[in-house]
């Protein structure tokens, strides 16, 4: 039986160099490991990066080609594009266990020892040198690049305490304190936000990437490290924090460009997968596809808005946070009203403003508007966009004097009627308020006859918000909810948010 066919339980019983040789173990580089295991997965039609949505035809094939080419990788893209997540998932392409010299801080290969410790141990004990096993989860190291990172942190330096303790001169190799990179020997090393690393520190990586070795100042020591490097970075032109120095960029074999979800459907998969919704919330709150579409539409509107800094990006964390906040708003309402269950409302969606304000970087004009108001405008724009997927275009209906499907609703508000949809109103009051608007229920029945009663109520509320966005009625923000009234009368009372007047700000 050869090494690769030995069951894991039996493999872990091998504890000496002699037993390892008898098992037929052969040394293999980390890049070769990644390549071989990727080939096996592709041949077996296994998913290589499960849960990574939207990259099936772009980033994932690029990653696979880079691994097959045994390249160092730089993942280039705006925040929240799963760069670090993909780097972490590469661990699953490593062998489950590899043998290391027991006690070695550099994960020394028993057949190819690297450190002076491992060489001396094998020289002393020969085939009886102790061997232990390292799981793949322990072969991943990640470092966030910050301006205070030093060469000693990454590469290493002489340790005066070690020298004093061991009573060794500084010329002795054993006084070296190895940094993160040497300690990642035979593993994957990830540097996040590479441009944040000072240029002089980036220079220290040249030898590692090109020749695969490191040099520690004051020592004539060469360590031919075996490491798979993965870097992540924002596009250089989009940040004032720094850049990747050209010689380093030249040494990174594959630069893979990531991107945001290209469709609402992909965005919904990511949000539903990543949102941390409690089991009890799912039991209490019933939701629908439309509200998920609204959440993803907010992110798309933000990425296109002139009030939001496009260079900073709008990550998937925005939609995840909005979804979590929205579900909590609905859950809170049930607790306040003593109800066991509730159906999601547009009011719950609008209550998630705090989940947006900290997730978007605003340009000067946006700062003048204020983060809260910009968030409300983005939500209003999302409602306006999605409204046309569920109801007739109000702009076209305005031209039809006798067949305008919204006339009964707008006329009622024009007669001076108003309704308040409060965030925490009970189900009975919510139902009563919406049903009091003539023509609203009939409009929803006509265009969504197959929907259940709870969904129809949601669509009725959504319809009012959509009509306000198209300036057929007025929507005014109250402290505890939203008030709908006639557009003309609102001009003499309080300002509304959303509507045509705000549309230009979001184009």
Structural summary, described in words:
The chain is of the alpha/beta class. It has 2 domains: 3-257, 3-Layer(aba) Sandwich (Rossmann fold); 264-506, no CATH class. The protein is 45% helix and 13% strand. It has 27 helices and 16 strands. The strands form 6 sheets. The chain has a 5-stranded parallel sheet, covered by helices on one side. Helix 15 packs across helix 20 (371-387), helix 20 (371-387) packs across helix 25 and helix 24 (440-447) packs across helix 25. It starts with 7 loop residues before the first helix and ends with a helix.
Features:
507 residues; alpha/beta; Rossmann fold; three-stranded antiparallel sheet; 16 strands; 13% strand; elongated; disordered C terminus
What is the fold's blueprint, element by element?
Layout: H1 8-11, H2 17-22, H3 30-43, H4 59-68, E1 73-76, H5 83-89, E2 97-101, H6 116-125, E3 131-135, E4 140-144, H7 151-154, E5 156-158, H8 160-166, E6 176-178, H9 180-183, E7 187-192, H10 199-203, H11 206-210, E8 213-214, E9 223-224, E10 227-233, H12 246-251, E11 254-257, H13 264-274, H14 279-284, E12 285-286, H15 289-304, H16 316-337, E13 342-343, H17 346-350, H18 354-357, H19 364-369, H20 371-387, H21 394-397, H22 407-414, E14 419-422, H23 427-435, H24 440-447, H25 453-469, E15 474-478, E16 481-485, H26 487-490, H27 500-506
Helix pairs in contact: 13-15, 13-16, 15-16, 15-20, 20-25, 24-25
């Amino acid at each position: 039986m050869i090494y690769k066919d030995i069951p894991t339980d039996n493999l872990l019983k091998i504890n000496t160099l002699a037993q390892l040789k008898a098992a037929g173990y052969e040394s293999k580089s980390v890049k070769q490991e990644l390549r071989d295991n990727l080939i096996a997965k592709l041949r077996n039609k296994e998913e290589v990066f499960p849960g990574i949505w939207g990259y099936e035809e772009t980033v994932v094939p690029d990653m696979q080609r880079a691994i097959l080419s045994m390249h160092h990788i730089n993942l280039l893209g705006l925040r929240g594009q799963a760069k670090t997540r993909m780097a972490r998932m590469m661990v699953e392409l490593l062998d489950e266990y590899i043998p290391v010299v027991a006690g070695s801080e550099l994960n020394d290969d028993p057949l190819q020892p690297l450190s002076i410790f491992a060489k001396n141990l094998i020289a002393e004990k020969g085939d009886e040198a102790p061997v232990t096993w390292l799981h793949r989860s322990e072969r991943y190291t990640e470092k966030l690049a910050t301006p205070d990172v030093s060469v000693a942190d990454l590469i290493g330096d002489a340790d005066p305490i070690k020298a004093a303790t061991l009573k060794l001169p500084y010329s002795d190799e054993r006084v070296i304190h190895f940094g993160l990179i040497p300690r990642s020997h035979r593993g994957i090393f990830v540097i996040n936000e590479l441009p944040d690393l000072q240029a002089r520190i980036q220079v220290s990586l040249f030898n590692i990437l090109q020749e695969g070795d490191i040099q520690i100042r004051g020592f004539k020591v060469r360590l031919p490290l075996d490491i798979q490097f993965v870097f992540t970075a924002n596009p250089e032109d989009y940040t004032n924090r720094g850049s990747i120095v050209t010689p380093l960029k030249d040494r990174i074999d594959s630069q893979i460009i990531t991107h945001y979800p290209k469709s609402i459907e992909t965005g919904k998969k990511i949000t539903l997968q990543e949102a941390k919704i409690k089991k009890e919330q799912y039991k209490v709150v019933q939701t629908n596809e439309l509200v998920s579409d609204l959440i993803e539409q907010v992110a798309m509107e933000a990425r296109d808005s002139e009030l939001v800094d496009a260079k900073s990006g709008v990550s998937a964390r925005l939609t995840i946070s909005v979804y979590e906040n929205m579900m909590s708003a609905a859950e809170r309402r049930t607790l306040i009203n003593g109800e066991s269950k509730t159906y999601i409302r547009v009011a719950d969606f609008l209550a998630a403003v705090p989940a947006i304000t900290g997730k978007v970087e605003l340009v000067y004009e946006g700062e003048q508007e204020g983060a809260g108001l910009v968030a409300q405008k983005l939500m209003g724009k999302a409602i306006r966009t999605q409204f046309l997927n569920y109801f007739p275009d109000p702009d076209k209906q305005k031209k039809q004097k006798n067949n305008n499907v919204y006339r009964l609703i707008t006329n009622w508000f024009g007669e001076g009627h108003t309704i308040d949809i409060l965030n925490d109103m009970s189900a009975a009051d919510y139902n009563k308020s919406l049903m009091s608007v003539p023509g609203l229920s009939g409009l929803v029945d006509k265009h969504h006859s197959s929907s259940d009663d709870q969904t129809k109520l949601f669509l009725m509320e959504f319809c009012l918000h959509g009509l306000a966005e198209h300036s057929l009625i007025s929507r005014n923000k109250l402290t505890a909810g939203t008030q709908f009234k006639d557009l003309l009368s609102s001009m003499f009372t309080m300002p509304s948010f959303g509507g045509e007047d705000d549309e230009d700000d979001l184009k």
